[in-house]
Amino acid sequence: MPAKSKAQQKAAGAALAAKRGEQKVGELKGASKSMYKSMSEKQLDEMASTKRKGKPEHASKG
Fold first, then answer.
1. Cβ neighbours of residue 19 under 8 Å, at least 6 residues apart?
2. How far is 1 from 27, CA to CA, in rounded Å?
3. pLDDT at position 55, please?
4. How big is the CA angle at 47 (ends 14 and 42), to the nearest 5 degrees?
5. What is the C-alpha to C-alpha distance for residues 5 and 60, in angstroms, rounded to an integer?
C-alpha cells in the first residue's frame, strides 16, 4: 500500500526504523506509534519506500 502523503511516508519510515531496532519504540509518537503496532515490517517498508514526487505534504481528509 503506497503512502498518500509525505507525512504518512515519514511516519511509516519512523515506525519501520523502530521495528528494525534502529530507533527506540518509546520515541515514536502519534501516527508512527500506531503504525508500529498495527502494521508488519513488510507493509511499513512498502509505505516508506513510496516515491515522494507529486505527493502532498499532508493527505486531505475525507
1. 36, 41, 44
2. 25
3. 82
4. 85
5. 9
Provide the strand spans (E) within 1-62.
none
Closest CA to 14 of 54, 30, 2, 57: 30
Q: Give yes or no for a contact between 14 and 28, defined as CB atoms under 8 angstroms apart.
A: yes
User: For residue range 14-61, what is the model confidence (pLDDT) as tens digits?
Assistant: 999 999 999 999 999 999 999 999 999 999 999 999 887 888 888 876
CB-count burial class (<10 Å; 0-12, 13-18, 19+) for 61: exposed
Angle between helices 30-38 and 41-48 (to 10 degrees): 140
How far is it, in rounded angstroms, from Cα 58 to Cα 4? 8
